[in-house]
Structures are given as C-alpha cells and as structure tokens.
Amino acid sequence: MYELTPLFISLLLSTGLVAGVINVLAGGGSNLTLPALMVMGLPADVANGTNRVGVMLQTLVGLRGFDQGGKLDRSDMWAILVPTLLGGLVGSVIASYLPTTLLKPTLLLTMITLSVIMIVKPAMVIPGPDETAYRLKDRPWAWFGLFGTGIYGGFVQAGVGFLLIASLAGGLRYDLIRANGLKLLCTAFFTIAALAVFIWRGQVAWVPGLVLGVGTMIGARLGVKLALNVSQQAMKWFLLLMTLAASAAAIWL
Q1: Over 70: is that where the pLDDT of 178 sits?
Q2: Mainly resides where (predicted)?
Q3: Which of 40, 51, 114, 131 is found 20 to 30 A from 176 (Cα to Cα)?
Q4: From CA 70, how far away is CA 45, in angstroms rounded?
Q5: For all residues of the chain together, what is the average pLDDT?
Q6: Cβ distance 27 to 160 under 8 Å?
Q7: Does residue 120 have a pLDDT over 80?
Q8: 230 pLDDT band (50/70/90 cuts)?
Q9: Which one is predicted more confidently, 139 or 159?
Q10: CA 102 to CA 155: how far, in whole Å?
C-alpha cells in the first residue's frame, strides 16, 4: 500500500520531468520512473501499469510539439502503427499475467544487446546523412521488427524508445529527429492499448500515475524544444549515452 506524501510527490514530479526529456530525445526514462513508483510501495506489476499513465501523457505533448515543428512524418505512419499496436496488445496481455520477475532480465538482455550493436556497428541503427527513408512496403521485414518492438513495449515499456529508433532509423532509415517523432506516435498508440489492459486487470494506481504524468508532460515539452534544435551528430551521441545508461540501470535496478 502506498502513501502519497509531499516527498513522494516531489520524487514523482522530478523523475517524471527528467524521464520526459530523456524519452523524447532517446528513451529509457522508465528506468527512473518505475523504481520511483516501487519506492512508494507499489508492487512491480502495478508500478508497470501506473507508469503507462505518465508515458501516455508525455507522448501526447511530445507528438504535438513534433507536429508543430514539422518533424512528424505522416507519409507512412498508419502502416507503421499497425504492427506496433498489435505487438503492444500482445505484450501488455503477457505482462499482466506473467511473473514480474521476468521484467528485469528482459530489460537487461535488450539494453545490453542494443548497446553492443551501437558500439560495434552503429550504422545498423543510425542512418547516414544522405540516406532516404523507406516506406514499410519496400522493406516488409521491418514489419516484424516493429511488431516485436510493440510486444516488448507492451510488456515492460522501459527502453522501448531505443528499440523503436532502431526499427525506424535502422530498419526504415529515417533520420533521428523524424524517427523520434514517429517513435512517440507508436508509443502513444500501443501505450493506450497497454493501459487499457492494465486498467482492466486493476493494475493502475491513478493518483501517483497522474502526478507522474504532470512531470513527464513538462519534461516532454522541454525535450521537444531540444530535439528540434540539436544536430544529428549530437542526437547520435546522446542516444548512445542513454543506451549505455539504460544498460547500467538494468543491471543495478
């Protein structure tokens, strides 16, 4: 049972703000917010469901910012949404029934694998400056990458931004800024689907979730301003650093 004291309110707002910035620019913010919710006394499964409230709210703010900045690519977004949304539904159902002890090893394996790829062969994830983005129909194998990413996001959420960037920038070769915009779009849709499952299972604590959401929305607004004004090179290094940080978090959390 949790008690929402002034200390915990401050903790949720501050971690939400930092997580909102990180999630818009790269990913891994849930490595901060999930422990914050569990420190309050929420069980891991309820923390996992409650965290989706903040994620949903931040993605809506971030999406609006990218759209206003002209960086939300609409040309193929509906085709991209289908596999991620289907995967999100599958992953959230799995998460609501399977033991919560599987969350940490899943996060750890995913983050370490992605970190190794980005260090050893970064071109697999980060497109060159002159590359042109592909439509999903031109690279049908990318459908399975997006579906698998949706399953992961529905299951654990933490670090899904990295996998979406890997699918969108690595698989379909979107530049990192547009990949981030589409990442938020995909995250918004499968988070809504996942949140519906967690609500149905009674695994959402609304008050801490909404307090966390206030922080993530402020962070998302700041993150969009940064994302629209930084270079591809700076974004690439930030993405690598956040992936390594998420790997460390997965080991120690």
Answers
A1: yes
A2: membrane
A3: 51
A4: 37
A5: 84
A6: yes
A7: no
A8: confident
A9: 139
A10: 10
Is there a contact between 136 and 142 (Cβ–Cβ < 8 Å)? Answer: yes
Per DSSP, the residues of the chain read -----HHHHHHHHHHHHHHHHHHHHSS-THHHHHHHHHHTT--HHHHHHHHHHHHHHHHHHHHHHHHHTT----TTHHHHHHHHHHHHHHHHHHHHHS-GGGHHHHHHHHHHHHHHHHHH-GGGTS--TT--PPPGGGSTTHHHHHHHHHHHHHHT-TTHHHHHHIIIIIIS---HHHHHHHHHHHHHHHHHHHHHHHHHTT---HHHHHHHHHHHHHHHHHHHHHHTTS-HHHHHHHHHHHHHHHHHHHHH-
Per-residue pLDDT at 154:
81
Q: Which of 61-65, 101-105, 154-158 has the lowest mean pLDDT?
A: 101-105
The two tokens of residue 5 are 């004291």
How large a percentage of the chain has pLDDT more than 70?
84
Query: Are 92 and 154 contacting, i.e. CB atoms less than 8 angstroms apart?
Result: yes
Residue in the structure block whose two tokens are 């960037």: 165
For the chain, the domains span 6-252
- How many Å apart are CA 166 and CA 194, to the nearest integer? 21
* Max Cα distance, the chain (Å): 53
Report yes or no: 42 and 17 within 8 Å, Cβ to Cβ.
no
- When pLDDT is cut at 50, 70 and 90, the band that residue 232 belongs to is low
Length of the chain in residues, anyone? 253
Asked if 126 contacts 239 with a C-beta cutoff of 8 angstroms, the reply is yes
Sequence letter at residue 15: T
